[in-house]
């Protein structure tokens, strides 16, 4: 009976100990799970470890990728002077200056039971009282050691039992995974920033190339076509009245020249709308929509609300290009009778909607086939909006029209913006 009682007590103690370990690990998981930013994660993790265990101070070193030195990433309860002792090291602390870095080689918790055994802590003024026990815990993710968490106990207790070392090892794994996730998140953010920079550069180059082609069309082809029309008119004036067949051919040439000239000017405006520079966003959108849609019998309605804040050139050209693409889709595919364009500013964001009553389309099918012109157009619209932190949403149903919704932040730059302050336009 005594043996059974002892066994039950041992089991109960083991169960309580395991429960305490699980509670500690869960508390640390919650602490490091609130953020993906490295500084926040390490500060929360270190604070929670000191709170749950009998350590009075601690600090975290991280090993940067491709670098053998450890760099301070967080500290709690440790004098700043401790980390000014790295004067001789180019980046952080080289291995020969700290015995706790044996953790990097062994991958297991290292203990320095006498504080004077650590050359770093031993340099401090004894009155600082950094304790008697120094534990170095590896921060591991998979088979990689990403850094160390060093912990100091000010009492006589030292985590030398197998259970204590196992708990510290598990905590190190948990924090190491959080560190790895934070690094991956940072790398992803950096790659997204690079992608954004490349896309901005690409769009900038595209706009500059559009301007160059527009100038070339205007200075060369448009002038040649104008000169051709003038020459044909001059020939008609000197042509004998009886040469009706020749006169008819000249009329046809003149008509073709005028038609080509109109198409050239339309192309020039598509490439670089001068009204966007001269008059602003809404006049440019109005002119483009009416010139494209009214010849097709599509009635255009434009409305703005609370649009007073000047817009940056980047915002103007982005919104214009997206609206332009939406109008082109109406021209090519919608078979609409009416089109509505609405712009509204609210809470420093610009909301725009282009809506038609046309035949609609299968959005999922278009998105699956992005290689065709229409899919690429929608993708380009989305990328332009995302570059400025905006969003684009398309609602469409076959036979029930299409609604393109845009939302983007407004930069309060001293640039020319919308000329209308609101109301029907």
UniProtKB/TrEMBL annotation:
This is Oxygen sensor histidine kinase NreB. PANTHER family: NITRATE/NITRITE SENSOR PROTEIN NARX-RELATED, NITRATE_NITRITE SENSOR PROTEIN NARQ. Its EC number is 2.7.13.3. PROSITE patterns: HIS_KIN. Residues 212-412 form the Histidine kinase domain. It catalyses: ATP + protein L-histidine = ADP + protein N-phospho-L-histidine. The lineage of its organism: unclassified sequences, metagenomes, ecological metagenomes. One of its GO terms (molecular function) is ATP binding. It is an enzyme of class 2 (transferase).
């Amino acid at each position: 009976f005594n043996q059974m009682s002892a066994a039950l007590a041992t089991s109960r103690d083991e169960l309580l100990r395991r429960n305490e370990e699980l509670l500690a690990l869960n508390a640390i998981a919650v602490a490091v799970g609130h953020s993906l930013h490295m500084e926040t994660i390490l500060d929360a993790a270190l604070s929670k470890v000191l709170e749950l265990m009998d350590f009075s101070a601690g600090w975290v070193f991280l090993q940067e990728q491709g670098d053998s030195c450890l760099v301070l990433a967080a500290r709690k309860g440790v004098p700043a002077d401790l980390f000014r002792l790295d004067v001789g090291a180019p980046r952080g602390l080289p291995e020969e200056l700290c015995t706790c870095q044996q953790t990097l080689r062994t991958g297991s918790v290292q203990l320095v039971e006498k504080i004077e055994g650590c050359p770093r802590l031993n340099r401090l003024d004894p009155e600082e009282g950094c304790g008697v026990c120094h534990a170095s815990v590896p921060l591991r993710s998979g088979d990689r050691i990403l850094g160390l968490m060093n912990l100091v106990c000010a009492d006589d207790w030292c985590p030398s039992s197998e259970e204590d070392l196992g708990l510290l090892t598990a905590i190190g794994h948990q924090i190491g995974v959080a560190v790895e996730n934070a690094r991956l998140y940072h790398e992803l953010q950096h790659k997204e920033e690079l992608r954004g920079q490349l896309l901005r550069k690409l769009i900038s180059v595209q706009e500059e190339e559009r301007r160059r082609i527009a100038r070339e069309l205007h200075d060369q082809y448009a002038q040649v076509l104008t000169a051709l029309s003038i020459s044909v008119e001059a020939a008609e004036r000197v042509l004998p009245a009886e040469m009706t067949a020749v006169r008819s051919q000249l009329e046809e040439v003149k008509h073709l020249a005028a038609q080509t000239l109109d198409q050239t000017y339309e192309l020039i405006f598509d490439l670089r709308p001068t009204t966007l520079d001269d008059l602003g966003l809404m006049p440019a959108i109005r002119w483009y929509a009416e010139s494209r849609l009214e010849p097709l019998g599509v009635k255009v309605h434009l409305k703005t609300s609370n649009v007073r804040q000047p817009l940056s050139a980047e915002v103007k050209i982005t919104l214009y290009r997206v609206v332009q693409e939406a109008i082109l889709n109406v021209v090519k595919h919608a078979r609409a009778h009416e089109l509505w364009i609405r712009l509204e500013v609210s809470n420093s964001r610009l909301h725009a909607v282009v809506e038609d009553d046309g035949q609609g389309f299968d959005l999922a099918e278009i998105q699956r086939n992005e290689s065709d012109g229409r899919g690429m157009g929608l993708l380009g619209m989305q990328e332009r909006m995302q570059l400025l932190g905006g969003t684009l949403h398309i609602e469409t149903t076959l036979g029930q029209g299409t609604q393109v919704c845009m939302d983007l932040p407004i930069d309060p730059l001293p640039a020319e913006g919308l000329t209308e302050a609101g109301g029907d336009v």
